[in-house]
């Protein structure tokens, strides 16, 4: 799978996201969450690996975890691992900020 450009530049990206916000992006047939934590951006699968609740409704903690609203499982934004290893890891995607724009690598 290719790298997909999701924003034209970082100014657009920063404008679209408040700190600790999550947005759902549709990339072709695929739905991906993009989240901001501080100055960093993280992309991950839309549905929780536990029972498929949409993570676009999740919260981001001060510690850089995404917390599913249904059963409060906590996934590390960088690694995707669940804090208590209660289910499989959240699938994460690389976010690349280049001069030509902001890309998500869907590999
Ligand atoms: S569905 Fe996400 S924690 Fe259960």
Topology at a glance:
Layout (H helix, E strand, L loop, with lengths): L2 E5 L2 H7 L5 E6 L2 E8 L2 E6 L13 E2 L4 E3 L6 E3 L15 E7 L2 E5 L2
Antiparallel strand pairs: 1-9, 2-3, 3-4, 4-8, 5-6, 6-7, 8-9
Bound molecules: FE2/S2 (inorganic) cluster.
Could you write a compact summary of the structure shown?
Keywords: 2Fe-2S, Iron, Iron-sulfur, Metal-binding. The protein has 107 residues and is mainly beta. It is built from one helix and nine strands.
Descriptors:
Rieske_2Fe-2S; 3-stranded antiparallel β-sheet; 42% strand; 107 residues; 6-stranded antiparallel β-sheet; mainly beta; binds FE2/S2 (inorganic) cluster; Rieske Iron-sulfur Protein; metal-binding; 2Fe-2S
Instruction: Give the CATH H-level superfamily.
Output: Rieske [2Fe-2S] iron-sulphur domain
Helix content: under 10%
* Strand arrangement in the largest pleated sheet: 1-9-8-4-3-2
Helix count? 1
In CATH's first tier, which class applies?
A: Mainly Beta
The succession of helices and strands, N to C, reads EHEEEEEEEE
Describe the largest sheet: 6 strands, antiparallel
As a percent range, the share of strand residues is: 35-45%
Ligand catalogue:
FE2/S2 (inorganic) cluster
Radius of gyration: 13 Å
Q: Mean pLDDT, rounded to whole units?
A: 95
Distance between the amino and carboxyl termini: 4 Å
**CATH 2nd-level architecture:** 3-layer Sandwich
CATH topology descriptor: Rieske Iron-sulfur Protein
Segments where pLDDT lies below 50 for 5+ residues? none
Overall outline: globular
In total, how many beta strands? 9
Domain Rieske: 8-104
InterPro entries: Rieske_2Fe-2S, Rieske_2Fe-2S_sf
Organism: Roseivirga thermotolerans
Cofactor: [2Fe-2S] cluster
């Amino acid at each position: 799978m290719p790298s997909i450009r999701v924003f034209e530049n970082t100014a657009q990206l920063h404008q679209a996201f408040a700190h600790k916000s999550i947005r759902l992006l549709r990339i072709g047939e695929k739905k991906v969450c993009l989240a901001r934590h501080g100055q960093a951006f993280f992309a991950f699968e839309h549905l929780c690996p536990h029972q498929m609740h949409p993570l676009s409704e999740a919260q981001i903690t001060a510690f850089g975890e995404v917390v599913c609203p249904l059963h409060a499982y906590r996934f590390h934004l960088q690694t995707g691992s669940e804090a208590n290893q209660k289910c499989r890891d959240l699938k994460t995607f690389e976010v690349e900020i280049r001069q030509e724009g902001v890309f998500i690598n869907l590999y």
